[in-house]
Write a structure and sequence with these properties.
29% of the residues lie in helices and 26% in strands. The chain is an alpha/beta fold. The chain has two domains: 1-82 and 164-177 and 188-274, Rossmann fold; 98-162, no CATH class. The longest helix is centred in the last third of the chain and has 16 residues, at 177-192. The two termini are 20 Å apart.
Length: 274
């Protein structure tokens, strides 16, 4: 893993009128790792993702991608950098097949007609590269797929375009045990293939099963970002619900990176994310 995060956010603020939703948020996502973004409802997770994906402009702060400052003013800017988001609703069309969904809006053409053989080959190669074996035919309509298979197609669609960072919004919500295990294996495989993955989840079992780091948001502030092996389930719950756990999170005096004391979010990321 590179010491330089693929995506680094510094001092991100976002308000909607008088309501400040994000306050001085820092986040780092490394290539080859799964970073779990956790927080209670209303903590600011969705707003932060929409700032990263270019749907909302940040009011203040810096975005660095692969170590260089970038500006993300639209979803097209994010896609150009290699940032793809798989939202909870998946944005798939039930009346189209898998290939048609994966290339929706980005179809390949041969002259005036669609280049179906190329699209089918690219879709097959992408699914094979992710070791997906649960789909019987690329020409199945999405309406015939299970929840886990739909999630698989949505993720494959996101990585088809040489993406570098994939953000997954509650990918296992409403899935059964077996389908959840399949999706989590795919999430882990994305990171093992060298992508940076940001996983949004309320399920702590899923978080601890696949993540390398956990970033906790509390009332719009990033209160901690730590290695998964350095924190317990109960500590994460405390950070989500109270903004602090022991020497992690919000405290009452200025913080010095590494000592875990003081006010403001405790930064336990190696090198410090500021």
């Amino acid at each position: 893993m590179s010491a330089t995060p693929l995506l680094e956010l510094r001092g991100i603020d976002k308000s909607f009128g008088p309501v400040q939703v994000l306050r001085d948020v820092a986040l780092a996502a490394h290539a080859g790792e799964v970073t779990a973004l956790v927080g209670d409802n209303g903590a600011g997770k969705s707003t932060l993702v929409k700032c990263i994906s270019g749907i909302y402009p940040a009011d203040a702060g810096e975005f660095l991608f692969d170590g260089r400052p970038v500006t993300i003013n639209s979803p097209r800017d994010a896609a150009t950098l290699g940032i793809e988001v798989v939202y909870q609703d998946l944005a798939l069309c039930d009346n189209l097949d898998i290939v048609q969904n994966m290339f929706l809006g980005r179809e390949k053409h041969s002259g005036l007609v669609l280049d179906e053989p190329t699209m089918e080959q690219m879709a097959a190669e992408t699914l094979a590269g992710l070791s997906v074996r649960t789909v019987k035919s690329l020409r199945q309509h999405v309406s015939s797929l299970s929840g886990g298979q739909r999630q698989t197609v949505a993720i494959a669609k996101a990585v088809l375009w040489n993406s570098k960072l994939v953000i997954l919004d509650e990918p296992t919500a409403a899935l059964g045990v077996a389908q959840t295990a399949q999706v989590l294996e795919l999430v882990r495989r994305l990171a093992d293939n060298g992508l940076a993955v940001v996983l949004i989840s309320h399920n702590m079992n899923d978080v601890f099963a696949v993540s390398d780091r956990i970033a906790a948001l509390y009332l719009g502030q990033m209160v901690a970002q730590v290695k998964t092996t350095d924190i317990t389930h109960s500590q994460v719950v405390e950070l989500i619900t109270a903004g602090r756990s022991g020497n992690l999170g919000l405290t009452g005096e200025p913080v010095t990176a590494g000592n875990g004391t003081g006010a403001g979010p405790a930064d336990t990321t190696p090198g410090g994310v500021r």
